[in-house]
């Protein structure tokens, strides 16, 4: 476990969502999650019947991103799942059970406004079902992490696979709106903070800090990738909107900025509870 420093804790305290990156049979997948921090671990909850809950036990090391304004916290870590409705799952060992119960309390307090919004949306019929789904509690333990401000690398913890060649100039990222990028490489997936240009029909251009790509050992070239841009307008699922673009990306380094051109093969978009996925045929 890589202990967090005050800069990392500050970003985690200010941020609202964790963007979690996983590897699927169709390449990287990335989703926003509410979270809480207990000691050095991040905790979040997911529905038991989702793709994510099925993939997490098989993915080994996963990656995540939390943003707070221009600052970013990125981690590589390992997960453990707990069935929140199964006391035996929570109390398998005294230490683990206590941490899981602490996490439930911390998650409830930190995300009270969103949980209240969920309840209101459920009662108002703005969600697909009036029955809340069974939840799985997930612990994400950092093995390596880094904090950034724009393109500048601030602090680093744990072991990363490569070294950084920091440029003399560290400008802000260009682009129209914030995004999270899941990039597939030999160690699995790394999630990068980015800025997305207004996407064309089949190509999305996104920019990320070069130092983070270097730290993770990402080489220039092509790989499967996903880009998420979402809008946290207000508490509750009915107020959320966004999209995930998936396909094949080409990455190049230019000083402090890594440029990615993603040929979009599939788009998943959501607006409140309504979700739509469409394939993008090659042009």
Task: Describe what you observe in this structure.
The protein has 283 residues and is an alpha+beta fold. It is 20% helix and 49% strand. It is built from six helices and 15 strands. It has helices at 6-14, 51-59, 87-90, 94-110, 112-123, 210-215, and strands at residues 18-24, 27-33, 36-38, 41-47, 61-68, 71-83, 135-149, 152-158, 177-185, 188-196, 203-209, 221-232, 240-254, 257-271, 274-279. Strands 1, 2, 3, 4, 5, 6, 7 and 8 form an eight-stranded antiparallel beta sheet that branches. The protein has a six-stranded antiparallel barrel with strand order 9-10-11-14-13-12. It is globular and about 50 Å long. The model has no long low-confidence stretch (mean pLDDT 86).
Keywords:
283 residues; six-stranded antiparallel β-barrel; eight-stranded antiparallel β-sheet
Question: What's the topology here?
Answer:
Layout: H1 6-14, E1 18-24, E2 27-33, E3 36-38, E4 41-47, H2 51-59, E5 61-68, E6 71-83, H3 87-90, H4 94-110, H5 112-123, E7 135-149, E8 152-158, E9 177-185, E10 188-196, E11 203-209, H6 210-215, E12 221-232, E13 240-254, E14 257-271, E15 274-279
Antiparallel strand pairs: 1-2, 1-5, 3-4, 4-7, 5-6, 6-7, 7-8, 9-10, 9-12, 10-11, 11-14, 12-13, 13-14, 14-15
